[in-house]
Amino acid sequence: MSARTVAFAGPVGVGKTALVAALAGIEDALVGAQEHRTGRTALPHEVLCDGVGLVDLPGSVSGPVLAALAAADAHVLCVAADDGPTPELLEHAHLLAALDRPVAAVCLTRCDRAGAAPGLAAGLPAVDAAVPVLRTDAAATGAVDPAPLLDVVRGVDRRPATGPVVLHVESVQEVPGAGTAVVGGVLRGTLAVGAALQLLPAWHDALVGAVRVRGALATQAVAGDRVVVRLDGVPAGEVAPGDALVGPEAGVVRSRVLDVALGEHVRLAHGSAVTVLAGAREVRAEVAWLGGRFHQLRLAAQDELLVAPWDRVVLRTGAGEVAGADVLDPAARRQGPSRELLAALARRARGERDG
């Protein structure tokens, strides 16, 4: 099945918003995205283009940005041809690599400016040599033919809609006379009207009263869809960005201590501080190196994370390094490393069940 949602990632100022507007052939995409950038936190914004949702992401990495990337079917990395491999660009490329999600294409913007380097995308993390590179001018003025990009993203498989539903809340809307609505991407499962779900971390019962997918009422949404979900039975003020809407047996827990397997060989010293991006939350944590062939770490977070086994989390260091890690134990106990612990974590890393 072809992809439906593609997220446009890249640093501030590379022209993502203008590109998305031009691809969709509309001007209000620019206005809508700017409205979502007001206030303290910038938020993703989606427009529709020939059946494919184009998600314009803010250039600053945050919890909501990570949640939108994780839930998307595919990613497009936007690169300014005249900027060179800036630290901000490399951070976004490493972020996509850490998420281990497909990069469908690279959009090289500002190709008409002096100093533009058409080959800049080659060698970037997360960008395979076979990934197509699409080129636009400085402002992506006028309508840009979306056909080449849509052909690419339709060749990417959709996220599987199996398992209990999980949605990490990126923002909250108050609907006058109708209660509370949450906005985000469906990470896993199928979210249906009438479903009885739970809202974490409060473990508040929530009934799905209505679902909007790209502005239209729908009876359900599946993994990869960006949605607005009206929740019945949830009082105003009982839900906040960073919360999670989950189905029964989703396995998502509240935790400040979790054991993970580091996906990349990034050097993280014992006792060092990192920022953990998990779901739509961004929390500082201290690293304890456990060792083992799967590079196991223990993360002691300063605030609660909402994670499940095998969730992919992203670690950022103060030096700008970015690495992905798989959650082995989302509710680890504060105990020192032992042979038994390392053996149990190794079994989980291999996909084996304990006992």
From TrEMBL:
InterPro entries: EF-Tu_GTPase, GTP-bd, P-loop_NTPase, Transl_B-barrel_sf. One of its GO terms (molecular function) is translation elongation factor activity. Pfam families: MMR_HSR1 (PF01926). It comes from the Bacteria. Residues 5-103 form the G domain. This is G domain-containing protein.
